Amino acid sequence: MAGGRPSEFNKKWNNEDGLLRIAGWARNGLTNEQIADNMGIGLSTLYEWQKRYTEFADALKNSKEVVDLHVENALHKRAIGYTYVECTELLDRETGKLVLVKRVTKHMPGDTTAQIFWLKNRKPDDWRDVKRTDTDDERLLEKVDALLSGIPQKLTGDNNETDD
């Protein structure tokens, strides 16, 4: 038999339906560990198959990237605000159909929480909560040195004070 027996991947997953299921799990946000569990394989096998089978690696990677882009776009939209149309419809008793009664254009202002999240992740040097500088570290070391230098004097009772 040339080439040996087919691998479990080739038998079970290397087909349109198998790759579509894998891509769907990735698109739905499952972790690699969860996908491996759904496939009935170990995580190390999943990583090995990613290296060995490009179609498998592509199904995982491309599906995750698409969802990540959708989430990034939604976060961006939420951060900067957007305009939308709100329609009100009522049921027409005579025809039994929905009839457009009112159409209003509304604006959703930017969400400051989304803005903060975006900026902290996109520009961490400018927007992280705590900014540390070299001078902060130097001042802290000076204070620690000053405190430590006074410890031996306090232990011996020598306060450099003289009685007059």
Automatic annotation (TrEMBL):
Superkingdom of the organism of origin: Bacteria
InterPro entries: Homeodomain-like_sf (IPR009057)
Protein's recorded name: Helix-turn-helix domain-containing protein
